Structure formats: C-alpha cells, structure tokens
Amino acid sequence: MTAIPLHFELPENLTATKFLKKLAKKIEVEITSQQYTIKSFYDSFDWRLYGADIVCEFNHSRITSQLNLINRKTGELIAQEKMQDIPAFSKDFPKGRLKTLLEQKLEMRALLPICQLPYEAYCINILNKDRKIVLRLQIDEHEFLTNTINLLPLKGYEKATKSISYLMKNIFCLKPIDSTVINSALKQQKRKAKDYSSKLTIKLKPEMPADEASIVIYRHLLQAMKVNEAGTIADTDSEFLHDFRVAVRRTRSGFSQIKNTLPAEVISQHADFFAWLGQITGLTRDMDVYLLSYKNYQQALPLSLREDIAPLQAFLKQKQQAAQKELAKKLKSPEYIKQLMAWEHYLNQPLPKKSKESNAKMSIKALADQRIWKVYIRLLKEANAISESTPAEALHDLRKTCKKLRYLMEFFQNLYPADEIKSLLKALKGFQTVLGDFQDYEVQELKIKQFSEEMMDNKTPSNTLLAMGVLVQYLDSMRCAARKDFAKQFALFKQAENKAVFKKLFAHKA
Amino acid sequence: MKIIATYNIKGGVGKTSTAVNLAYIAAENGYKTLVWDLDPQGASSYYFRVKPKIKGGSKKLIAGDRGLDGLIKATDFENLDLLPADFSFRNLDLVLDARKKPTQRLKKLLAPLAKEYDFIFLDCPPNISLLSESVFEASDILLSPIIPTTLSLRTLEQLKKYIKDSKLKHIQLIPFFSMADKRKKMHREIIESLAESHPDILETVIPYASDIERMGWERMPLGGYIKRGRSHDAYQALWQEIIRRTL
Q1: What is the per-residue pLDDT across A263-276, written as a single tens digit (0 to 9) for each?
Q2: Which CATH class is domain A7-188?
C-alpha cells in the first residue's frame, strides 16, 4: 500500500490566509493559533539523532515552546514536551518519554543547536460532528523557503487523514514533499546533515603511492583534531576530547606503523608534538571516564551505600574541572598553535617526485597488505604466549598491538571488500573489549584507592570511604572476570574463519 | 509501562474522573498515556468525545486476533489516547468466562502496548467480577477512590481482604479520599481519624466540586478547561503523590 502524502508545498503566490479561505469553503476548520515561530533543529555534534532517523526540533513562539522528536522518514511525532529551555544533556531533561529516548540515543553527548528557521505557523483543527478533532493541520509560512502545509494525523482517524490528503492533492493540486525541512534549512546555511562522524572514512586508491596516501590519512586526522578542538576547549561534552585524542593517537600510530613513507626527519620533528598532546590530554580524559562510569559505580554498590558515594562524584568533578582548565590553557597557547600550523603547513606542501624513503613510492595497497599482515601475525604470537600465569604487562602490550592493528585496518578499510573487512574489525573490536576491560578495571581499582587516600585528608565521611572500599572490591572482581574471559575471547578472534579472511585479504602479497 | 486501574467495588465514587484527569496530567508531563474505558456506560469515552464503539465488540476484542492497537483513538490532547468502551462490555464477564485462563486475558492483550505507552489507565466498572479479577492480574497499581463514609470504608476493607486472600502480591493498592465535602462533619471526621490509622491512604483529598462535575458539560478533562483552582491543584497533587509512592 502506498503511503498517504502528508506534506505539501503551497504554490509561491498562495499565502496561508488565502489558502485557508479556500479550504474553509470545502470543510469546517478551526484556526487555533497563528504565531511567529522559530524552529531550531538540535542534534549531537556527531548527528546521533539524525543517524537514528530522528529530527529534534524546538518550536519557540511568544505563546508556547515545544520540543518535538519526529521520525525523519515517516513524519510521525515520536515524543514531545513543552519546555522553555533546552538542557545540554539528556540527563537534565524532565523525567518522561522524551528524556528516555534522548538518553538512549545521545548517551554522553550534548544536544546542540544545529540551525534555525523562522516562520509563521498556522495551527488548524479539523473537527467532526461531536466537535472532536480528527486531524490537525499546520501551515508554515517561511520567509526564504516555500510555504508548506502539513497533515498531522491522529491515531484512529485514518479516514479523515485520507480524505484531506486527497483534497490537497487532487482538488487543490498541491505538490507532495518530504516530511521535514531540516535539509533545506541546512542547505541555506551551506551545511549538510552528518557532516561529522568519528568513524574514519578515508578514500584511497590502491595504486596511490604510499607517501601520497599517508598525507591523505594525516590530513584527515588533522581535520578531526581541528573540528574537535573548540568543543574540547569549551568542554561542551566529553566526546570532543575523546575524538581529539583518538585523532592524536591515530596520527602517532601512523608515524610508527606506516613507516618510511614520509621523510624520517619530518616525522621525528612532529612526533614529539603529538606525544605531548597525548600526555596533556590524558588526565582530563581519565577524569571524564571516571565521571562517565560514576553511574555504574553507584549501581555496583549495595542499596544502603549508594547515596554515600556521592562525595566521590564531587571530588571527581573538581579534579576534572581543574584538569580541563589546564588543558584548555595549553590548547590555546601560542606553542600549540605554532606546532599545529607547522604540521598543517607540511601536509599542504607538494610531495617530491623522488624520495629516499624506502616505502614512499610503493603502492599503498601493497604496503597496507604488508603492514596489516605483519601486525596480525605479531598479535597472534603475543596472544598465544599468554597463559593463566602470564603477568598483566603482557596483556597490556597485547592491547597496544591490537590498537595498532585496528588503526591500520581502519586507515585502509576502503582498499578491501567492505563486508569482509567490517567482519574482521568487528571480531577485533570484540577481542579488544576484554583486553580494555582488564586494563581499565585494574587502573580504576588503583585510582579509586588513591582517591580515597586523598579524600581521607578532606574529612570525607567514613561511609563514603567504606563505599569506595566496596567499589574497589567490585572493580577487582570485574578485573578477574575479564582475565578469565580472555581465553574465550581470543579463541573467538583466532577462529579459522577469521584467519582465512585475514589471509585472503592481506597475506597474498606480503 | 505502568498499568493503573481506577477501581472500587462501589459505583459513583469518582473512578472515571480520576482516570481521565490523572491520564491528562501524565500526558501533559510528557508520558505517552492510554485510557482504556472498560465500563459499558462509556463515561470516559464521552469525556473525550469519542464514540463508545469498537469494531467487533467485546468478543473480537477478547479473542485478541487483531490486537488492541487498531482500536485505539487519539484524544484531542497530546500524548493521550483512548481505547473506547462498547455497549457489549456489559457481557465482558461472559466473554471472558468462555476463554481459557480468563483472568490472564487482559494482561496478555495489554502486553504488546508496553513499548508504546508509559502509563495505561484502566477505567473499571464497579463490582468484583471475572473482569475485575482480570484487571487485578494485569495492573501494577490499584487506585481506589473512597468517599469518606463508613460504607465506603467497609468496601475498602473488603477489597484489601480480597487482594490478600487472592495472593495478588504484585499489585499495589493505593486508596485516596474522593468527592470529599468539607462542609460535612462526617467527611471531615473520617478523613482526620483515618489519616493516622491508615497510612496507606494518600494525603491528597479530591474535593466534591462543581468544576469536576462540569467535565460532562465540557466533555474534556478538567485541565482542558481550567488551569488553576482547588480541584485542578488537588489532581496535580494526587498525581505527584502517586509518582512519589510508586516510581
């Protein structure tokens, strides 16, 4: 069955008032309001709502302000709530359906204004004999876009929707259009939806010389750093710093893993800068992680202690803010700007036709095959050597090797069949999770112990310290569980099926 | 999803106005809410200007072949839907009796709506019957309006005993005073004396008021035509107290 058109465009010469006069001759309409409204679209920086086919619009007028979540594909209203201001984080929304939905989709990301659209909104009800509303209409009279008329169906009154839609299309000869104006509004501001994603999508050609491909990769990573810089400095949400750090780490990984493509002296000149960036961002990120884990910490405690842990959150917040302030200062420093510009300047220089670096003019596909296969074999060797009695350091080293492999595969993923490389990345991610958990729980256990010592000097209530003790115990049990799970997860990763795909994709030319 | 039944063995105690007004407040607070008018008299359907008629009547409804979703009507208020009554609901007991596990039917029928709604209010007819047993099985909260008279209190005790005897451990019985007339000495005395002896009774008291009676004239929940006043504030307070006690 074809869907009934619900959104129509009004011809240029037809104003809302003129159209309403025409409509009133055909059916009984009740105009409930006419008001100047500003529609602001909201989403996270990485478009989590749009990606989930949700449009979040805040319609603000003199009389009322309402936040709507709308299905981008069907135009169906998923949730709405009257509110005056939009909190930055879903956790700060009033309890209700809207909050639940936003929490699921946004997680730790802030809800940010994306673009605005002013318009005159006419709200109209279509009533039946009992004066019950059977359909709502809204005419949006825009200044810069064409005017639209939107049918807002009501459950159980499909017949009314169908007949009014027929009237619009066949009697008034209006043109059906897309359900949302978000894309037109973005276009006006020369933007496009999903113009940022933390996922790497680097387009490389297999025959591209490796030095040229390296430049493409580094430019992409530099761009990621630059777009996340302002949000990191402003501490808009913790993901800006996270993505900034990932771009730094990937660049550093590139320096060590895509070797001998760019001049060694250039790499060594900039490597120190990226190492410094890794170091100065570490403390703030650690504090962000503890704060993000706080809810889990609380849940891990017995009910009687859940309230007692609250001073830990305040302590973490204080530490995070101090670290963030320091970080922001460093990211605004002339030294940082100078070094970043130097790196950018280098990446924009034309490459020499000849290079003394051994891999510079090799095809990127051949180099990618070689590097990925080599690191994969190293990973298997390191993981195979791990037994129940192996010290934790070996697992930490293995975690680093996994990260190197992951970054290499992500840099070069478009050189390989999408479904096969995606399945390998998925398997690797699964394996990385257990190694990540093992190390994270260990570090957190040590850190919480250290924090409790610091807090002890600040006259912290004894029950808080008791709760932190219980938390340390919990983290320890989780660390042990991750350690036990290692063998199972490794067996899953090294299974013959994955091995065959690794071999097929990367080994033949290595 | 929480299922709240407004129920009392006695009739005329304010069950429908409670269901309709609390559902309106829940919806206004952003919760997707449904009112199921189980009373063949169709008073909640009337308040929402929806015809008390469903396709196929109670037989097809209870058979559950088509699901409840297709029978639901949007009200004139955001986030608030209604499953209308039907005159055939007068025979719901008989229809239920003809099914296997009749007391489980309502619960089964409501289960698919869990994703869509945050609150479902069941506006129940009076009496203890097979239908009310089915309502008890399906509900999380049994909200029982009581008029501050000795007879009403007797029925509350009967209900408590019934819940205990039937081992309905999942259900939370929440009684509150409804249609209380402060001009009546007996009403005042009963409310005062019971506040101490029955801590389970909510503190909020819904008054006997002409603006609540006006719902039938306006054909909409109280909040649809007045934005402040004693009755309006009382329902708001009642909702807040229920939320505090149950969520």
Answers
A1: 999 999 999 999 99
A2: mainly beta
